[in-house]
Design goal:
By secondary structure, the chain is α/β, with parallel strands linked by helices. Helix 1 runs parallel beside helix 2. The longest helix is centred in the N-terminal third of the chain and has 14 residues. The protein is globular. The protein binds S-adenosylmethionine and iron/sulfur cluster. S-adenosylmethionine binds next to strand 3, strand 5 and helix 10.
Length: 329
Amino acid sequence: MLNDTYKRKIDYLRISVTDRCNLRCIYCMPGYGIAQKEPQDILTFEEIADLVRLAVDMGIDKIKLTGGEPLVRKGLLRLIEFISRIPRLKDLSLTTNGTLLAKHAKALKEAGLQRLNVSMDTLDSKKFHYITEGGRLEDVLEGIDAALEEGFFVKINTVVMRGVNDNEILDFAQFGQEKRIIVRFIELMPMVKSIGCYTDLYSPPYISCGEIKDRLKVVGKLRESEERAGFGSGPAKYYEIEGLSVVIGFINPISCKFCSDCNRLRLTSDGLLMPCLGSSSYLDLKRPLREGKIEDVRELIKEAVFLKPLEHSLVSSSFTQCLMSQVGG
Ligand code: SAM
Ligand code: SF4
């Protein structure tokens, strides 16, 4: 079992399988472009599989595959098939922008994927095109329907930005009710300059979960949901709204640090193990993985757990300059 210095149990690993993406969300990938990793620097599926086997042996029992956009990486199903068969793994999920989901939902289910998070920030096609710099909302909606038809447990992730999509908060709640899926609102984190949030955390696009809740109260009272089973292992808090039959999640990394419950490590696509989303320290697992030095990898995982800070530094000036597309969100 892995416990950190602050007595938190670390049992969740988020793995970014690629830094590439077919969208360019304004808050995630800077429009001026990013330097992409060379293919030889990206961990192979065999290397990821070796690492996952070891991590599960050490006490990790929840894995999330993310990116960039994980579904753009060829052969991903092979990795999912492998991971889903590891005994003792309790949860295997994937976070996707949903654009390629209609094509892959059935195969993902067959490969053993258990849950899906789909990121979608607007229900308006034109706005979607703007936020993602060219994406088609229809593809995502088709993807969600395909995933539901396959029987997936789906959650929607929506980053709320003032003046961009904050007028759609109630529409999203209704969408969740209609599709019988959970919608989670996420506070904008200061990662990219493009919408002016990089240097000034509380600059105009940022909107707190508290304010989002207030807007939802127009519909009915919010009551913390007692039902958590199957909702996932992350930091979200879930609420039901009187008068609507929907569960809404809130992820508030900025207004209310969720670090006391943090149970995770993050692996970048080029093999850096990050103790915290908001810290600049990382451990390079690629070299020992490539050299087959699995005991060295074990020690590095222990060290990453040891290095986990009490809380992230996104609110102070020393937040990471890593991009979400590289860290995996
Ligand atoms: N491409 C996939 C997707 O969009 O779901 C997986 C990777 S993406 C980096 C994972 C999550 O990070 C998405 O839900 C996205 O909205 C979120 N994200 C990216 N940049 C963010 C930011 N600056 N603030 C808050 N959430 C962000
Ligand atoms: Fe791509 Fe996801 Fe980042 Fe949007 S949030 S640019 S879909 S990695």
